[in-house]
Amino acid sequence: MLYDIRLSLRYDYGYPVAGGRHLLRVTPPTLPGIQTVVANSLSVSPEPGERRDATDFFGNASTALGFNKPHDDLELVMCARVKVERQTAAFDMSPDIEGLAGEIAAVRSLGAHSPHHFRSQTERLPHVPDIAAYAQTSRAAGRSVRATVEDLGRRIYNDFAYDPDATRVDTPITEAFALRRGVCQDFAHIMIAACHTLGIPAGYVSGFIRTIPPEGQERLEGADAMHAWVRAWCGREAGWVEFDPTNDMAASDDHIIVATGRDYRDVSPIIGVLQAGGRHKTDQSVDVKPVTEG
Question: Which of 31, 43, 61, 185 has the lowest tally of Cβ within 10 angstroms?
Answer without folding.
Answer: 43
